[in-house]
Design a protein that fits this description.
The strands form 2 sheets. Strands 1-7-6-2-5 form a 5-stranded mixed sheet, with helices on both faces. By secondary structure, it is of the alpha/beta class. A hairpin with a 2-residue loop joins strand 3 and strand 4. The N terminus and C terminus are likely disordered. 41% of the residues are buried. Helix 6 runs parallel beside helix 9. The N and C termini lie far apart (56 Å). It has 15 helices and 7 strands. The longest helix has 19 residues. It is elongated.
């Protein structure tokens, strides 16, 4: 139910079945008019797939996306601050630290379950007049699309340009050049590049990742890659090598180099902070935090509330299945490029005749 914190004769219950303890603080002091004038609405949320989470540097979550629709309508930006539990959210809302709590809405319920600050009757009214139950389905469909491969604009090229000649792509010389400084097998970066962009230098994701190595704009800024050069093959590969080198140093505590590779790939895809959370869970539960087979188990479990709400987890919910799959596919493709026997991925280990056929099919 869309509620506001206000003193009543019978104390109402919050969506968490906790009795409200707020008292009347007097007249409105920071309502809709002030929010619009200030240009920002502040929301509180707990991390989770239905509420709010980080995805490759972008924010998603059904409630977050729904609230973003509302803030777009009233012409302000949306800032979300993550809380550990509902008690913290209620306290901070009552203290005036935020304007609204994003609570998960159940399907087929006509009213929002969000909670609004007690000094904001105008905001409450605006939300009630704006909201339609069908918005939930619309936002969920939008989110599903964004998380699918359909949201990435790219041409699909063959994963092996010339199997007989050992030519993986048009960019092999660049992989070789830039992998020397980070001491990576160039074929490993080639396998990663195919996973990121299928060797399309013009690939672009909905989140803004660009080029062969799908560098995000903010990451490009950090790496010194000009945004005008994000689609340049050589500069994209050079920036990716620099990022891999940084991640290699960040995970230098992983003593086994072959194991460290998997942690670096996972961090490139899902973020180093989430990988560290999974390592902390592995250690807490008596598993080896330096062994990918153990840590990937908790990468997957970070999609479940009992794990992403665990006290040792600092960065919340993660789409772990995507990251674990990302690492597995790259490792398998790398093995294929090296001639190491493993299950083939996407026709990678095909005959020279098949490679020639794919060359024509994809207009390489």
């Amino acid at each position: 139910m869309l509620t506001s914190c206000s003193q009543k004769q019978e104390q109402p219950l919050t969506p968490w079945d906790e009795e409200e303890t707020s008292t009347d603080t007097g007249p409105s002091v920071f309502d809709l008019e002030q929010i619009v004038s200030n240009g920002e609405l502040i929301a509180l949320a707990m991390t989770g797939p239905e509420t709010y989470y980080d995805y490759r540097g972008k924010h998603l979550g059904t409630e977050y996306m729904l609230c973003q629709r509302f803030t777009n309508k009233i012409g302000v930006s949306l800032r979300v601050e993550v809380c550990r539990d509902s008690a913290e959210m209620v306290r901070r809302l009552h203290d005036g630290d935020a304007d609204i709590i994003l609570f998960h809405n159940q399907p087929n319920v006509k009213q929002l379950a969000w909670k609004i600050g007690e000094d904001k009757p105008q905001l409450k009214k605006a939300l009630q007049e704006w909201y339609r139950p069908q918005f939930l389905d619309e936002v969920k469909k939008e989110e599903d699309y964004l998380l699918s491969s359909r949201s990435v604009k790219r041409r699909v090229y063959a994963p092996m340009l010339n199997a007989k000649g050992g030519v993986i792509s048009h960019y092999d010389a660049l992989f070789q050049q830039h992998c020397r400084s980070i001491r990576w097998d160039w074929r490993l970066m080639a396998a990663q590049c195919y996973q990121e962009s299928t060797f399309d230098p013009q690939a672009r994701s909905w989140a803004g990742a660009c080029g062969l190595m799908q560098i995000m704009p903010t990451t490009a800024d950090h790496l010194g890659l000009a945004r005008s050069d994000m689609f340049n093959p050589e500069r994209s590969i050079a920036a990716a090598a620099k990022l891999i080198g940084e991640l290699d140093r960040s995970f230098s505590d992983i003593r086994n180099q072959q194991e460290r590779i998997k942690f670096i790939l996972a961090a490139y895809n899902g973020g180093a902070n989430h990988v560290r959370d999974a390592m902390a869970l592995a250690k807490k539960n008596g598993r080896d935090p330096q062994r990918w087979a153990d840590v990937s188990h908790y990468i997957l479990l970070l999609a479940q509330p009992e794990y992403y709400n665990d006290p040792v987890v600092k960065y919340g919910y993660m789409r772990g299945s995507e990251t674990a799959g990302y690492v597995d596919k790259i490792m398998q493709r790398w093995n294929g490029y090296r001639g190491v026997k493993s299950p083939s991925i996407g026709g990678m280990s095909g005959t020279p005749q098949r490679a020639t056929h794919e060359k024509k099919k994809y207009k390489i």
